[in-house]
Design goal:
Blueprint (H helix, E strand, L loop, with lengths): L3 E7 L5 H14 L2 E8 L8 H21 L4 E7 L2 H10 L6 E4 L13 H5 L7 E3 L10 E2 L1
Organism: Desulfarculus baarsii (strain ATCC 33931 / DSM 2075 / LMG 7858 / VKM B-1802 / 2st14)
InterPro entries: UspA
Protein name: UspA domain-containing protein
């Protein structure tokens, strides 16, 4: 079975350090990278086409960064409630070797927690978050 890692991003927020970490991990595992951007649709329906256009362009640029490093990459945009869209995406594919949070902001989202943090227990692979290199951290698994 081919190896693959999944990089999940939310609402066009991307952490360069997370992408670097994911590309390096994919190289080490001889894995392909799947990029998933989950975006909640805007309340105004007339803004959705512009949002989709921007997100697809961003995903194309991000995928090309992996390809430049010799890692096959495939990008997908999902519009909807992020947790639900991630679970649907995962249900349609073989298990990943790792899931990397590519948006960079902390998952500890206050009193109620971040949707991905709540989803971590349902994953069949490790979830990695990547901190800024300013603090010397490379990432942590959960």
């Amino acid at each position: 079975m081919p190896r693959a890692i999944l990089v999940v991003m939310e609402n066009e927020i991307v952490c360069a350090q997370a992408l670097d970490f994911a590309a390096e991990l994919a190289q080490r595992l001889a894995a392909e990278a799947k990029l998933l951007m989950v975006v909640e649709p805007p309340p105004a329906a007339n803004r959705q086409p512009e949002l989709e256009r921007r997100a697809v362009q961003a995903l194309d640029r991000l995928a090309s960064r992996f390809v430049e490093r010799g890692v096959a990459a495939e990008a997908t945009l999902r519009l909807g409630q992020p947790r639900r869209e991630l679970l649907r995406f995962l249900a349609q594919r073989p298990p990943f070797q790792a899931l990397i949070w590519g948006s960079g902001h902390e998952l500890a989202g206050g009193r109620h927690g971040h949707w991905l943090e709540k989803t971590a227990g349902l994953l069949e692979c490790p979830l990695w978050t990547v901190a800024s290199r300013d603090d010397g951290s490379e990432g942590r698994g959960s």
